[in-house]
Amino acid sequence: MTDWRPIDRAPRDGRWIIAIHRDEPDRRAVIRWDPGRVGDGRPWHVATTDYGYEVDAFTDWTPFPDPPEPGQGP
What we know:
single chain, mainly beta, six-stranded antiparallel sheet, 0% helix
């Protein structure tokens, strides 16, 4: 996964993506834009918590890779 894109181009349709946190660039987070949280200033929702993150909390994102075709394991 090297197809990193600026976070301002991340989808805001509720789909889950992989992101790099600004303060912890060696860690990755599974996040999605939550339109219900835009008004509270923390629209990014992390999959492992109910806590929201501010618009600029993440720097880059990448989509999840496509799953393998059935029967095409390693």
